């Protein structure tokens, strides 16, 4: 797969040399507060994980890079890709907190959505967000994703149960709104 390019970011396939960034980002409690990972993450465990997922056809993992500075700013991907119903779950992690609130996650979601519909020919994308992740919830709304429902007390984060919001978008909704076509 080629590098997917937006105005400010590039999304490229996850490589082994990206794993130290992934470990550092996820071990940052500001980042992991919405993720539900078993912490602390180690580079050894992450390499084992990478060895398993690199060949998994039901997922695609990417690295998000700032086009101007060349910095790795986060990770994103598609999980649970189902070719029969043409759907997948989207995840976005902006791990470099200096990039928070600047639209980099939203840009990554635009790129993944365009890629999923135009290259993978998926019909539906969905994502889960913790009830307190205001930035992610706001980005979904700006991009035209629809709230499908709320899973009550569905995830344990910081020792407390939280609701998770499920948002989705269909290819027909994305294609019919030209404002979302240019990343």
From TrEMBL:
Cross-referenced Pfam families, in alphabetical order?
Acetyltransf_3 (PF13302)
Highest taxon above the source species: Bacteria
- What keywords appear on the UniProt entry? Transferase
* Name of the molecule in the record: N-acetyltransferase
Q: What is the lineage of its organism?
A: Bacteria, Pseudomonadati, Pseudomonadota, Gammaproteobacteria, Oceanospirillales
Which residues does the UniProt record annotate as the domain N-acetyltransferase?
9-163
Q: Which PANTHER family match?
A: GNAT-FAMILY ACETYLTRANSFERASE (PTHR43415:SF3), SPERMIDINE N(1)-ACETYLTRANSFERASE (PTHR43415)
Q: Which GO terms describe its molecular function?
A: acyltransferase activity, transferring groups other than amino-acyl groups
């Amino acid at each position: 797969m080629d590098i997917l390019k937006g105005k400010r970011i590039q999304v490229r396939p996850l490589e082994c040399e990206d794993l130290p960034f992934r470990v550092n980002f996820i071990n940052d409690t500001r980042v992991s507060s919405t993720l539900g990972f078993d912490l602390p993450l180690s580079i050894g465990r992450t390499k084992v994980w990478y060895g398993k997922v690199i060949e998994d056809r039901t997922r695609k993992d990417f690295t998000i890079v700032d086009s101007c500075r060349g910095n790795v700013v986060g990770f994103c991907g598609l999980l649970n890709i189902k070719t029969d119903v043409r759907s997948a779950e989207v995840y976005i992690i902006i791990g470099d907190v200096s990039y928070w609130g600047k639209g980099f996650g939203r840009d990554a979601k635009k790129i993944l959505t365009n890629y999923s519909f135009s290259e993978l020919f998926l019909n539906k994308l969905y994502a889960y967000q913790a009830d307190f992740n205001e930035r992610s919830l706001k980005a979904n709304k700006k991009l035209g994703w629809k709230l499908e429902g709320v899973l009550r007390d569905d995830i344990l984060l910081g020792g407390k149960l939280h609701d998770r919001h499920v948002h989705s978008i269909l290819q027909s909704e994305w294609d019919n709104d030209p404002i979302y076509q240019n990343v």
